[in-house]
Amino acid sequence: MSDDLVPDDLWERVAPLLPPRPPRRRRYPGRLPADDRAALRGIVYVLCKGVSWADVPTERIGCSGVTAWRRLRDWTEAGVWPRLHEVLLVELRKAGLLDMGDAAVDASHVRAFKGRLIPDLRRWTAHVRAASTT
């Protein structure tokens, strides 16, 4: 199953986009880091199965769910996912498989003001309100 999660053609697209790993210390190098491809398998596993990070099968995937989560965080901060999206869009355009005429824009999460301008917040400038003159 783990081979199906990250096929070779997907890995060939993702691997060049990953940030370089920092060099290991010479004197106390610590534990060897988990393989990046195994971490990507863990990420895809969580996304496909809808399980929590703790439920990632370490033996089958090749890394723990916590490791996969950390790599997801690090790769997100490094901007891997937008670059991968651009690479995939370029490949689809070259192959003639991307037709923007079929695209739809969903604004269900965008606030609509129904033609009105955005109301400004009004704050009092004094500590207390002025007495009414009527």
Q: Could you walk me through the main structural features you see in this protein, from its secondary elements to its overall organization?
A:
Residues 7-85 form the Insertion element IS402-like domain. This is Insertion element IS402-like domain-containing protein. It holds the Pfam family DUF4096. The chain is built from 6 helices and no strands. It is mainly alpha-helical and 134 residues long. It has a domain at 2-13 and 34-100. The model has no long low-confidence stretch (mean pLDDT 85).
Quick rundown:
The protein has six helices and no strands. It is an all-alpha fold and 134 residues long.
- Based on the structure, what is the oligomeric state of the protein chains? single chain
Characterize the overall form: extended
Low-confidence stretches: none
Mean of pLDDT:
85
Give the biggest sheet: none
* Count of alpha/pi helices: 6
Q: Beta-sheet strand percentage?
A: under 5%
Radius of gyration: 25 Å
Overall SS class: mainly alpha
First and last CA, distance: 79 Å
**Strand count:** 0
Which sequence of SSEs, written as H and E, runs from N to C?
HHHHHH
Which range best describes the helical content: under 10%, 10-25%, 25-40%, 40-55%, 55-70% or over 70%?
40-55%
Domain Insertion element IS402-like: 7-85
Pfam families: DUF4096 (PF13340)
Protein name: Insertion element IS402-like domain-containing protein
InterPro entries: IS402-like_dom (IPR025161), Transposase_6_like (IPR052909)
SSE topology sketch:
Layout lengths: L1 H4 L2 H7 L21 H14 L8 H4 L3 H13 L2 H16 L39
